[in-house]
Amino acid sequence: MVIFMRYIFLFYILIASLNAGELILTGTVISNNKKMIPARYMGYVKKINFEVGDSVQREDILFELESAEFDILESQADLALEQAKLMLDVYKTRVNIFKKDKRKLKRDRKLLSPMDFRSNMEDINENIDDASESLESAQVLVEQASEKTKQFATIVGYLKIHAPNDGIIVEKRIQVGDMVAPGMLTMVIVDMNHLEIEAEVAESNLKYVRKNKVVKIQIPSLDYKASGYIKAIVPSANPMAHTFKIRVHFEKTNDMIFPGMYAKVYIDLTNELKR
User: Fold this and answer.
1) Contact (Cβ atoms closer than 8 angstroms) between residue 231 and residue 27
2) Considering its fold, how many domains does the chain have in total?
3) Which of 39, 147, 233, 247 has its CA 20 to 30 A from that of 129?
């Protein structure tokens, strides 16, 4: 009986608002830019630079990970690159020495018999070819090792988690020493500069709502009033209440407006009721 009377009361309020030429919707302030921060690499949390409620700027380091496995692989990659560069230098030196011998042999050609000259020239050319092939192989190894070290340099970025945008940390699920895995949710950042109001409109009143329509908004707790417009009508009805969600955009001019605040949306029906 109490529930029935409550519905009757709400019905009369709705009728009164419609008769007054105004549809009043209740809603909640939400952020249009809410970021879930996942881990991108497995490791232990080494350092956390911000806590819940702290403001962050884009590219701030939120927290850092450490990984013994990564350290080992990084050392192996650096060692492989050093060895490949050393081999490259050795074969470059050999090629240069053989080419120098070849030039010297050509200068001293008159001092040798034709047979000795051809024999020595064939030996030098063979040595140059072998050293050149080894040099090419060493160059490939250097390129592969360099690529490997670049990959690990990228992973270093994964171990330092940066803020994707300005905002406030509203949730933190990690502590120093915790182990995280790729994809694990660690923090949630809410952008406070791009706020909207999400409200629900009854299916029977949906005909009064249209995209880009100018509306009035109010946040009673702050006695804040402003104008906005209907940014979107979400085409997904609540099957139990038969309501649709709408998003109302407004310009934030008060620093005390936060996501989660209770809000009201006033839709003028003056022109709608005349149709």
Assistant:
1) no
2) 3
3) 147
Residue 110 shares a structural domain with residue 167: no
Q: Would residue 100 count as lying in a domain?
A: yes
76 and 143 together in one domain: yes
Q: For 49-103, write each residue's pLDDT tens digit.
A: 999 999 999 999 999 988 767 777 777 888 888 888 898 898 889 889 888 988 8
180: phi then psi, degrees, rounded to nearest 5: -115, 155
Is the distance from CB of 57 to CB of 168 less than 8 angstroms? no
Helix (H, G, I), strand (E, B) or coil at 174: coil
User: Domain residues for 81?
Assistant: 68-159
pLDDT at residue 151, as a whole number: 79
Whether residues 59 and 74 share a domain: the answer is: no
54 and 91 both lie in a single domain: no
pLDDT digit string, tens, across residues 20-42: 578 999 999 999 888 999 988 88
Q: What is the mean pLDDT of the chain?
A: 85
**Which residues make Cβ contacts (< 8 Å) with residue 98, sequence separation at least 6?**
124, 127, 128, 131
Give the number of other Cβ atoms within 10 Å of residue 227's Cβ: 12
| Average confidence (pLDDT) over 231-259 | 87
